[in-house]
Specification:
Elements lengths: L6 H5 L3 H13 L4 H8 L4 H5 L2 E2 L7 E2 L13 H35 L11 H10 L9 H14 L16 H10 L6 H11 L8 H31 L5 E5 L9 E7 L2 H11 L2 H9 L5 E6 H11 L3 E3 L4 H6 L5 E4 L7 H7 L4 E4 L10 E2 L7 H16 L14 E5 L3 H7 L5 H9 L4 E5 L11 H12 L2 E6 L2 H7 L13 H10 L4 E5 L4 H15 L8 E5 L5 H12 L3 E4 L9 H15 L3 E3 L3 H18 L5
Helix pairs in contact: 5-7, 5-9, 5-10, 5-23, 6-7, 6-10, 9-10, 10-22, 10-23, 11-16, 19-25
Length: about 625
């Protein structure tokens, strides 16, 4: 890393991150920022999406001198194929999470596990009835078995449309039918995308992108939505509660375990284990005062939403959490986990433990979690952490800050309860202009940006404009550290938002869960649209992922746009080598769906773009500014 006295300030806006970056340098630890510099400059062919390696007649790179690949495909087709496969990765990832939730629910319904139970029976019955399953006079587990089968069918290939499209405004569904983008089944759409992008198949860029919309909608309105609903049924529907965030949640005198990834099936059992007296006594015998559990990324979000467990950090804080020297164990499931955590952990006493066969890491210990042994494996993992505590070098421990308080747990059910059981007060506030609109601020961190600068400043600018912010994923930690996830944050909001949130005792930025829980935002949008009697695309809504990086984030953005929600990204996907695909994303989708993408790296300019869009949608509904 080049010598620059302000280089750490340029990497992250947070004091805890900057202190750990300084410690990393002292300890000789390489971080994600160091590796980014080693990889710069990036390949321009890759950045613009015009490098094709789908067959071995290539790989081919499109340029002015060579405008066609060996097979004859040009830039538009190559970019569309590459982007289609990129989106397929994201749709597969989030929806496979949903499949895991169905398998856990299926095991509970059939009595194949004693380690997991149904925590929200009323939601189970409500969702079953919504999906057309009889509930009167039937045993709960009998209903659950039918619902598990119903959800499995959403992943197949025999349906005309996935089940939760019943939540969609009729007018909007009719438009999807006209465009041929009604999602039929998660696996069917992902598989078809892989087929279409094989050499010699779909060689019309626009047609490929239409299927990309259908595939992403399958994730948003089925795979991800099922994951959210079943997580609530199995582990409890979130309700407002207090929690804490930043590296200050780590405890110098306790065994520290971090859970990381996306799936609560593992982390919920570990939470139970760390609270068992036998294991707490074992930790005391090892010299610790207790066992402390904290979260990273979306697994952290899941635990925080339901149980109030503190959050140590988001994506770019994962290495830095280890660098505190205070972490005994990082327990991971899957997604957004950097392989570097194994190497960084080896520089201290920290061990990484994997739990899913689909996400093993060389150098980590593997403790496989299954439905029949979840509690047994959780106890094993906690014992491993206690053993690591005896290896800790206290001279290398540095916890850089005090934790920050936040409020979490805003499921749609919790919002409705706060509103008195009806959306009417929210609709009235929107019509009166006290809440001018809402923005789903979601997703990631990317080391190409100053860590969390875009996430935080966009949130601040939006609430100043009386725009409610709904936060999920890694944005959550950023907003929490910035003091935006507490009721007192209404002092930073515009007068209308301040009045409404103040009367309800809620923050102007509401934490709605993990990245998969963006399905909550889709459902809320549909509820509002049906309440008002319009399509989602008519509402004063937007979405944004300012610091995105992953396939999943691109898929989320695409299903948001396809659902009629204007979506801002801090930088474009790797599609700029194709005028057809780029113009479709930025303009053409607006004509088809009433929404499109907008690209803007500056959060202040992005806030203005979103504000103008919300003004336009309010005007279209005949609402005053």
């Amino acid at each position: 890393m080049k010598e620059d006295p302000k280089r750490f300030e340029k990497m992250s806006m947070w004091d805890d991150a900057q202190k750990m970056l300084q410690k990393a340098e002292r300890d000789g630890i390489e971080t994600v920022w160091d590796r980014l510099e080693q990889q710069t400059p990036h390949c321009k062919f890759g950045e613009s999406g015009v490098c094709c390696r789908i067959c071995t007649m290539g790989p081919c790179r499109i340029s002015k001198k060579a405008p066609l690949g060996v097979c004859g495909a040009g830039a538009d087709v190559i970019v569309a194929r590459n982007f289609g496969r990129f989106l397929a990765g994201g749709a597969a990832g989030h929806s496979d999470h949903g499949r895991d939730c169905i398998e856990a629910f299926h095991a509970v319904a059939h009595g194949h596990t004693k380690d997991y139970q149904i925590k929200d029976e009323q939601k189970l019955l409500r969702i079953a009835e919504e999906r057309g399953i009889a509930i009167e006079g039937r045993e709960l587990l009998e209903v659950a078995r039918d619902l598990a089968d119903e959800f499995f069918e959403d992943f197949g290939s025999r349906r005309e449309k996935v089940g939760f499209l019943s939540r969609l405004p009729v007018k909007q569904l009719e438009n999807w039918e006209k465009l041929g983008i009604v999602p039929r089944g998660v696996d069917r759409e992902v598989t078809e995308m892989m087929h279409r992008t094989h050499m010699g198949c779909d060689n019309d860029a626009g047609n490929t992108m239409l299927h990309a919309l259908r595939m992403c909608l399958a994730d948003g309105w089925s795979g991800s939505m099922i994951a959210t609903e079943l997580s609530d049924i199995l582990f409890g529907t979130p309700s407002p509660r207090k929690a804490q965030v930043n590296l200050g949640v780590l405890k110098e005198d306790q065994v520290n375990i971090l859970v990381h990834g996306h799936n609560p099936i593992v982390s919920e059992k570990i939470l139970e284990a760390v609270n068992e007296e036998e294991l707490i006594d074992l930790a005391r015998k090892a010299g610790a005062s207790g066992v402390n559990l904290a979260g990273l990324c979306c697994t952290g979000n899941e635990l925080m939403m339901r149980q109030g467990i503190p959050m140590a950090g988001n994506h770019l804080m994962t290495e830095l959490a280890i660098i505190t020297g205070a972490v005994e164990l990082i327990v991971v499931d899957y997604q957004c986990i950097m392989p570097s955590l194994v190497q960084v952990g080896n520089c201290y006493h920290t061990k990484m433990v994997t739990t899913a066969d689909k996400a093993r890491f060389t150098g980590a210990d593997h403790v496989k979690f299954e439905m029949h042994n979840g509690m047994e494996q959780a106890r094993k993992v906690v014992r491993m952490a206690i053993d690591r505590y005896t290896m800790r070098n206290q001279d290398r421990v540095e916890i850089p800050c005090e934790p920050v308080d936040i409020m979490t747990g805003f499921s749609n059910e919790a919002l409705l309860e706060a509103l008195g059981g009806s959306l009417s007060p929210l609709v009235d506030a929107i019509k009166a202009g006290k809440i001018r609109g809402a923005v789903g601020l979601v997703g990631c961190n990317n080391p190409k940006y100053k860590h969390d600068f875009c996430n935080v400043n966009l949130a601040r600018e939006l609430i100043k404009k009386d725009i409610l912010v709904l936060a999920t994923g890694c944005v959550t930690t950023a907003a929490g550290k910035a003091g935006l996830l507490v009721p007192e944050a209404i002092e930073q909001a515009g007068p209308g938002l301040k009045e409404i949130c103040g009367s309800l005792g809620i923050p102007p930025v509401l934490h709605m869960g993990s990245c998969v829980d963006n399905a909550r935002i889709l459902q809320l949008a549909a509820l509002l649209a049906n309440e008002i009697g319009v399509s989602i695309s008519d509402l004063p809504l937007a979405a944004s992922s300012p610091e995105w990086y992953s396939e999943k984030a691109a898929t989320i953005g695409t299903y948001a746009v396809a659902s009629g929600i204007y979506t801002h990204l801090g930088h474009p996907p790797n599609i700029t080598g194709s005028p057809v695909v780029t113009n479709l994303a930025l303009e053409g989708l607006d004509e088809m769906l009433g929404a499109c993408f907008a690209i803007e790296p500056d959060p202040f300019k992005a806030a203005e773009l979103i504000d103008e869009r919300i003004k336009m949608k309010r005007k279209g509904l005949g609402l005053p500014e």
